[in-house]
């Protein structure tokens, strides 16, 4: 198995392909590293714990739209300067799915709607995030 950012998560094998590579299939999920000055925002998500905002791409949206939406829903972050970093190929039991990865600057923070799964948000220096 290759080193980070590739690895395993449960039975899933994750292999990262940096930009400018684009997945041959539509991404099923999007992840975003939202930067607030020199810190990244992480969210406490039920059943996932502390993580960067991420989630499924809805049928009528692009992966970048999903990343922006998830950042707002999970971290209360309004993003700008969204940059495509690459994508993960996720393989499990012969099935292959793709997840696009982005970084962005936080333009503003708003309240997280109560109906979403986020239990909190915090910013932390990159090297000391949980």
Description:
This protein is mainly beta and 130 residues long. It has one domain (7-128): Nucleoside Triphosphate Pyrophosphohydrolase (Alpha-Beta Complex). The chain is built from one helix and nine strands, in the order E-E-E-E-E-E-H-E-E-E. It has one helix at residues 63-75, and strands at 7-9, 12-18, 29-36, 39-45, 49-51, 54-56, 77-92, 95-109, 118-125. Strands 1, 2, 3, 4, 5, 6, 7, 8 and 9 form a nine-stranded mixed sheet that branches. A hairpin with a 2-residue loop joins strand 3 (29-36) and strand 4. The radius of gyration is 14 Å and the shape is globular. It starts with 6 loop residues before the first strand and ends in a 5-residue tail after the last strand. The model has no long low-confidence stretch (mean pLDDT 90).
What is the architecture at the second tier of CATH? Alpha-Beta Complex
Residue share in helix: 10-25%
Mean pLDDT: 90
N-to-C order of helices and strands: EEEEEEHEEE
Radius of gyration: 14 Å
The fold-level CATH name is Nucleoside Triphosphate Pyrophosphohydrolase
